[in-house]
Structure formats: structure tokens, C-alpha cells
Amino acid sequence: MNKASTQAPPRWLSPAEMEAWRAYILTSRRLMELLEQALDGHDLSMADYEVLAQLSDAPERRMRMSELAQAALLSRSRLSHRMKVMEQAGLIRKEECPDDRRGAFAVMTEKGLQAIVAAAPDHVASVRRAFTDVLSPADQAVIARSFTTIQNLLKSDTCGS
């Protein structure tokens, strides 16, 4: 007996579920495009901005690479690539971890701090224009609750991927 014949039939999406899913997918993609465009004049990508934002909030503007990858939702290989590009641009530097030879720190440079300070107003304006200002406080609360639930599910990896 092959595997296909033992699997349960798929639970297709209802029209309302499909409408919600498609609205999410299309909107999230377009929103990311808009946020990327807002950073074009600053020579930063959204991934760069997120790395800099995480580092700007960290003590001494430094984080272990593994923690930064997790916080910025980047794979280690993608973070490694971003680090090379951002190091070449002078936005960050990599430091060896003195107590763990395999570990390393990402450290924001002064140029990196200046870059995020310059980009933040345009980033926040685009977030406001395309997201927060078009939603009521009640809608924002529903979105926050909904996506926190999904995020927690994904963190616990109980969705059976």
C-alpha cells in the first residue's frame, strides 16, 4: 500500500478561510515591498534594518550571532551573508567571543547607528501610512492577538510541518 492511499483527504479551505488567507498573503507581500521601498534611499534592505534595529536595542549594541539570527528571524546562513554585506558597508563588525571560539558577536558601528537613526523616520512613516493609521485600535488589537497566537504556535512547532 502506498503512502498516498493511507493519508486522510485534505481539509480544503472554506470560501471565508480562503478569503482571509489570500488577503493575508497578498497584503503581507505588498506591505514588505512598500517597507523595502521606504528604505531604498538609505541603502538598507528590510533584513539590514531588522538587524540594525535588534542591535540598537541590545546592550552595548552587540548580540551573539545565534541570538541575532533568532531575533531577526533570519537563518544563520542568511544572517552570515547579511553580515558580510553590512560589514563591507561599515554598518557592523564581527567580534570573536572570548569564551566560545565557535561563537561570534555582531556589533553595531557608529555608522550603523547613524544609518538606522536616518532610516527610522521613513520606515515608521511607511508603517503608519500602510498599516497602523488605516486600522482602528480594535483592529490592531485583533491583529496583535491573532498573530501572537500564530507566532506562539510556530515557536512551539506544534502545527505539524
TrEMBL record:
GO terms for molecular function: DNA-binding transcription factor activity. InterPro entries: HTH_MarR-typ, MarR/SlyA-like, WH-like_DNA-bd_sf, WH_DNA-bd_sf. Gene3D superfamilies: Winged helix-like DNA-binding domain superfamily/Winged helix DNA-binding domain. Pfam families: MarR_2 (PF12802). GO terms for biological process: response to stress. Residues 17-152 form the HTH marR-type domain. PANTHER family: MARR FAMILY REGULATORY PROTEIN (PTHR33164:SF99), TRANSCRIPTIONAL REGULATOR, MARR FAMILY (PTHR33164). This is Unannotated protein.
